[in-house]
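Render Probable kinetochore protein NUF2 in 3D.
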Amino acid sequence: MAYNSRTTQYRGGQQQHRQQKKESETDAFLRLPDKVIAGCINDIGIPFTMADLLKPNPQQVQMVFEWFAELFMNTTQETVEPAMLAAAEDIAGDQADIFPPDTRNLMGFLVSLRKLMLQCGVHDFTFTDITRPTYDRIAKIFSYLINFVRFRESQTSAIDAHFNKSEDTKMRIETLYAENQELEQRLEEMKRQQKEMDGVVREKTSRNDELKTRLLELRRDQERVAETFERVKGEKARKQTLLEEKTEKLLKSRQECEKLRPYVSQSPESLQSALTELSDNLAHDKSQVDGMERRMRALQTSMNTFTVVNNEVQSSIKLLEDILVELQKEDDQESKGIKNREALAERGNTVREVAHTEKLLQTQLARWQERIEALRKSSREKAEQAQARMEELHSVQKQLREERAEKQREMERRRIRIEQTEKKMADLKETIEDEIHRAHDEYLKMESHIKLYTTEIEKCL
């Protein structure tokens, strides 16, 4: 068991060593020179020197971090202040002042900044990196941030394209939402108008029913009055004919009396009796005439009454015509109400279509978001692959550098050997040339001696 534990510790140590070695190689690959880091920070408008990098100032480092956070996430200590104040009030209530505003805002800013650091590849970012920064940590973090900015600038076209698509989709959603709200308001207004129209229609319908009932009663009264009028009119004609007959008979009787008057006896008794009879007849005729006159006056009164009733009937007919016009208007209003209901139904269908379109657009937005996430994932995978490829290339480059250094050393040795050989050859050439010159001089001397010897021999011979 002790052996197994030691083996496990050894393997864990090896894995940790390999991981640290890999991280150190990645840091060495991504880490930028101090001069480049200081120049990039100066380019963004914050005064920064290599001395500031060697001895970092917390306030200056916070300014740099805040600039990067505002660039990538649109977040500063001022933007997180309302949320942190609300959180402090939720936690401490009325005693929210126990949390200093600067510390509170800095902690909220740290949360947002840590998300940015995770995206940049810095997984061990802590609060100490802001409050007590060191050279190694700040150089590493700034190098990762600058590399992330460069990578983002290299992918600006793709980012802008997806951002523009998302903005267009967002604007389309906002437009459709505004149209939906407007249509809902119009729908509510039309429903309210429909309710008002329903109340008016019910009122008009009840009034129409009452007017129909009243019209039927007036029609029955008109029929009764017309029947009475016709009956009275016939009675009047009959009575008038009877009066004319009685008048004609009276005139004939008077004419006959005038004709018979000369032939009547002049005895007082007979005259008295005739006078009495005539008085009775006259009284009877007078009573009949008075009765006929009263009847005529009654008939005249009935005629006047019938005229008034006829006028009332005419006014009733006119009222009925007005009622018919009102009924026609009510029918028109009802047809308009039906049309409004149909229009409301069409608007409802339009609203449903808009809602369906909104759902489709939301689905498309979700798809685009999924595609964006997939693209981000693929870009991260490609970045990881590129990073792995860069690591491989870095290792290959390191190997090539070692091979190049070895070859340069070998070439240097060969160059030294060649120079030494050339120097030896030059020395040997000089030596040979000196020997040739000496041999030539010896040859000339020998030739002169031979010539002299030959001359002396010839002289001797």
